[in-house]
Each structure stands twice: as C-alpha cells, then as structure tokens.
C-alpha cells in the first residue's frame, strides 16, 4: 500500500485517498495535455453520465430511484434539487427563445397556457411548496415506507424533477401549436399537461407497489 503526505492537509496517507480530508493522493502537475484529455473530459463525462442516469431513473422508476438514494445508493445519481434548478433555467431559456422566434399575438396569450409565464411568476412557489407539500401528505399516508419527513422530501424532489422535465415537452408542443399544425398537436398538449400533474402519483405508486395492494 502506497504511503505519502496529503498535499491538502499534510496528513499521512495510505492508499488512493486521504483518510482525513478525502482528497486523492495521486496529485500531479497540471499540464495542457492532462487538462484537456483528463480533467476536462473526465469531469464532463461524469457530470453528464450522472445527469442522464438520474433523468432516466426519474421516468422509468422514480419511486424506486428515490428509495435507492435515500438508502445510500447515491454515487450514480446527480443531486435531484440541483438538477431541478438546471431544468428550471432551461425552461426559462427555451421559453425566451420561443417568444423571440415566434412572438404570439396579445389575444393568444390570454387564451393559451403559457408554461414559461407560469414558471417565471411562480418559481419560488414551486421550489418552496411542491416538495414539502408532497412530502407532508405522503408522510401521513404512506406509513409503510417507514421514511421520515426529510426522506419524503427527496421523494417529492424527484416528483418535481419529473414535472419539470415534462414541462419542457409541454413548452415545445405549445410552441409548435402556434404554427399551422394538425389538431392532434392540441390533444398532445393536453395529454402532456395532465401527465405533469399525475407524475407524483406515478412516483409513489412505483415506490409503494410492493407494500400496498392497489
């Protein structure tokens, strides 16, 4: 087992990581080659891999994914709340783009659901109320999960992430509908809209399907 001195805290090290501060013991001088071929690509790959895995799990098995995270299987997941903030930012960016590319008439704004305006006006409300509201209700209902309130907030967070991801699709469909499109586009918009609000049900069903008979 290799021994040495940690370059971060000066503690004695045994192995690949410092037992005091957790820094890697294999530090090296930064060069352009290593920066581009290792540090930059390695960082982007691991960030992207974590985000893509978390998004996939959010749609395929949101409840079980949340339980995995709660029970300590966290290395493959990107932080749900950080990712939710990124998705909100992406929503606002896309809606700004939609408005610039195809600005709608004033009378259309009054009659058309505007997901961008909703998120812009209610951003703090979404972050501060959806997660705790879902968490508190589920804490009272799903006692067999044996989760504390904070752990139910994680479940609410993954529900919020799913809603935000589908809001991207909703915004895209809403944008497409402003052009001369077939009637089924409008029905698709309605379907996505209801899926957004039903997503927490899917999350908790996925988490409790083995504990309750539905």
**Number of continuous helical runs:** 7
Query: What's the average pLDDT?
Result: 78
Strand order of the largest sheet: 1-2
**Count the strands?**
2
Beginning-to-end CA distance, first to last residue: 54 Å
Q: Topology as H/E string?
A: EEHHHHHHH
The main pleated sheet reads as: 2 strands, antiparallel
- Helicity range of the residues? 55-70%
Uncertain segments are 105-112
- Structural class, by secondary structure, is mainly alpha
Note the overall shape.
Answer: globular
Rg estimate, integer Å: 22 Å
Strand content: under 5%
Note down, in words, how this protein is organized:
The chain is an all-alpha fold. It is built from seven helices and two strands, in the order ββααααααα. It has a two-stranded antiparallel sheet. The chain is globular and about 70 Å long. About 4% of the residues have low confidence.
Key attributes of the depicted protein:
214 residues, two-stranded antiparallel sheet, globular
What's the topology here?
Layout: E1 3-5, E2 12-14, H1 32-60, H2 62-70, H3 80-101, H4 106-111, H5 115-141, H6 149-177, H7 184-208
Antiparallel strand pairs: 1-2
